[in-house]
Amino acid sequence: MWREIREWLLTVEEFEEFYAQTVTRLTGQLYVMLGDLYEAQDVVQEAFVKGWSRRRQIDREGRPEAWIRTVAWRLAVSRWRLRRRSADAWKRSGAPPHVAGPEPEQVVLVEALRELPAQQRRTLTLHYLCDLTVDQIAGETGLSASTVKTHLSRGRKALAHRLDDPSIEEAPGV
Question: How many CA atoms lie within 13 Å of 6's alpha carbon, on the beta-carbon side?
Answer without folding.
Answer: 5
